[in-house]
Amino acid sequence: MTEANPKSDSKSIIALDVGDKRIGVAHAETSTRIAVAYTTIEVDGLEFERLREIIAELEPSIMVVGFPRNQSGATTKQTDKVRAFARQLDRFGIEIIFQDESLTSVLAEKYLKSLKKPYAKAEIDAHAAAIILGDYLEVNFGA
User: Fold this and answer.
1) CB–CB of 34/143 below 8 Å?
2) Helix (H), strand (E) at residue 60
3) Residue 31 placed within a domain
4) Within a domain: residue 34?
5) 104 and 65 in contact (C-beta within 8 Å)?
6) Which residue among 17, 46, 128, 135 is buried most deeply as judged by most CB within 10 Å?
């Protein structure tokens, strides 16, 4: 009798917190359901090449993209920018899912402050992506 290997059914997922200056990236495996801040990509014209490298390394089957809205839930100019960015992600042939990103940057900064260590603004973006991914995992995989 062969035991099932839950790792073999595991999917790799990355999440993106898309901003005008930086893109926070987080990663998780569905088998562990733990989202971790992975890196930050500078928006400098080479961001899709860097994303291609991350995708080649992590081999995600799903890409979760933070979906910005204002406090009342309405879309904003940033929502339109993120939608346009997501359309360009189609080139990678990976399923793209939008996930609400309300207050994720605020929560990420609070977390980093709680560590009582210096941190860079880029770390906020990566941790915001991890919160986005954690929310997605909780809703879809019961994390």
Assistant:
1) yes
2) none
3) yes
4) yes
5) no
6) 17
